[in-house]
Write a structure and sequence with these properties.
- With 164 residues, the protein is an all-alpha fold.
- The protein has 7 helices and 2 strands, in the order αααββαααα.
- It has a two-stranded antiparallel sheet.
- β1 and β2 form a beta hairpin.
- α2 packs antiparallel against α3, α3 packs across α4 and α3 packs parallel to α5.
- The two termini are 26 Å apart.
- The N terminus is likely disordered.
Length: 164
């Protein structure tokens, strides 16, 4: 899996979508989600051992998870939904702006259970990963302006409670 270097996220959703598509509420919620993703990613990276950065070709699950959480909360796109072609009936699947490679990395939360983390840190890592997974699927079943603030608050609380 290749991800951009930490802190070098792709453009924010406001740049990916035309301003006419987003309501002021959506713009604010998506901006808050991006900020939460950056804070959570920074905290997750702080949990990794100092030797977790040996070479670009070597991956470390906690660092991969940090990148995936950041990218998920940065790339959320409420308009990237399933579309049915009215002529053929074929469905083109939307992914809410979060591609399969990033979604796969969101499952890295479970692999930190063997790491040298406290029980509180392990619980917080699982909460952050789970909330990010739910946020990635909001395009299919949720309401961004109602549900995303709840998920970002849960992430912020988990990180704060774990000492982040």
């Amino acid at each position: 899996m290749t991800f951009p270097a930490p802190g070098t996220l792709p453009g924010p959703p406001a740049e990916q979508l035309s301003p006419e598509q987003l309501s002021p509420g959506q713009v604010a919620v998506l901006a808050d989600a991006r900020a939460t993703g950056i804070r959570a990613g920074r905290w997750l990276r702080s949990l990794a051992p100092a030797d977790a950065h040996p070479a670009p070709a070597v991956t470390y699950p906690l660092l991969d998870l940090a990148d995936a959480v950041e990218m998920t909360l940065d790339r959320l796109d409420p308009f990237d939904t399933d579309v049915r072609d009215p002529h053929t009936g074929a469905v083109t699947g939307g992914d809410g702006g979060v591609g399969p490679e990033v979604r796969e990395q969101l499952w890295e939360g479970a692999v930190v259970l063997g790491d040298g983390l406290t029980s509180g840190q392990k619980a917080a890592v699982l909460v952050v990963a789970g909330a990010a997974r739910l946020a990635a699927d909001l395009h299919g079943y949720g309401d961004y302006t109602a549900d995303l603030p709840v998920l970002t608050a849960v992430i912020d609380h988990a990180v704060t409670a774990a000492g982040g």
